[in-house]
Amino acid sequence: MSITEIERQWTTRLRKRVEGKLPPEKLLPDTQPAYVSSWIYVFGVATLAALIVVIGTGVILAIRGPLWWHQSFIGHFVNSLHLWSVEIFFFSMIVHLWGKFFMGAWRGGRTFTWMTGVVTFIASIVTGLTGYVSQTNFDSQWISTQAKDGINATGGGAFFNVLNFGQMLMWHIVILPIAAVLLTALHVLMVRVKGVVPPYEDEAKVA
Amino acid sequence: MSLLGSIINLDGYGHYLHWHFILVSVGNLVVVSLMVVTFVAALLLPFPGKSRRKENR
């Protein structure tokens, strides 16, 4: 195979593109800019940490099943860990969102980073809803019967039926977690590619 | 567990605040207030090691 042929291979082109956009020192940096030394920059990674606990406890709940999480002491505990890590996940994500909104975090060619965050937020809300209706208790019955009216009003009920437990559980434990994790990974990669957004007063110095 | 559960009784009716068209449960209001407090604190509280990092810059 000639050098030209190797250069034209999609694997070579993709590798060179990735190496150019995201060299190892950018992917796993040793230092961060001085303006990152603020509590407001902590909430992105706090959201990420909460997501790891959400996924971990969710895997355990999926393995053991509803009887375990309703009836055993450890099941109650893991179920609570799942709930409270979700609470911390959303809490941190909202504070992260406020911080980035008032920072204008879409500046400096970071539109895609901002938009992946927006889509991840929406996907997380749907994951939360499907989780609430998959609890198999009176709470989930109440939420699903209330939610169906809202979703039917949008016309979405034909495709997304909150009273269909099997469909909701599959969305909650398969489709949406995969989407949320992939979107989060893409979001974090975009932060690495473009760097953390500087405050307005530091923008001139950074640019 | 029962001791922890007895601190806040979650089996009763929910408490809501209603003002004109605004209807919010006390639980949601507490969480939103905590988020606002955390946001303001994150902006105002000094970050550990910040002065040292500035010296190194």
Largest interface: A-B, 15 and 16 residues
How much strand of chain B? 5-15%
How far apart are the first and last residues' alpha carbons of chain A, in Å?
Answer: 43 Å
Number of helices of chain B: 3
Uncertain stretches of chain B: none
Quaternary structure type: heterodimer
- The Cα radius of gyration of chain A reads 21 Å
Structural class of chain A: mainly alpha
What proportion of the residues of chain A is helical, as a percent range?
A: over 70%
Biggest beta-sheet profile of chain A: none
Query: Helicity of chain B, in percent?
Result: 55-70%
Give, in order, the helices and strands of chain A.
HHHHHHHHHH
Trace the largest sheet of chain B across and list its strands.
1-2
Number of strands of chain A: 0
Could you spell the SSE succession of chain B in H and E letters? HEEHH
Mean pLDDT of chain A: 92
- Helix count from the secondary structure assignment of chain A: 10
Categorize the overall geometry of chain B. flat
> Which percent range describes the beta-strand content of chain A?
under 5%
Helix- and strand-based class of chain B? Answer: alpha+beta
Q: Calculate the terminal CA-CA distance of chain B, rounded to whole Å.
A: 50 Å
Description of the structure:
The complex is a heterodimer of chains A (about 210) and B (about 55). The relative contact order of chain A is 0.11. The longest helix of chain A has about 30 residues, at about 75-105. Chain A is mostly helical. Chain A has helices at about 5-10, 10-20, 25, 45-65, 65-70, 75-105, 110-130, 140-155, 165-195, 200-205. Among the domains of chain A are: about 40-90, no CATH class; about 105-190, no CATH class. Chain A has ten helices and no strands. With about 55 residues, chain B is α+β, with helices and mostly antiparallel strands. The mean pLDDT of chain B is about 80. Chain B has one domain (about 1-45). Chains A and B meet through α6 of A and α2 and α3 of B.
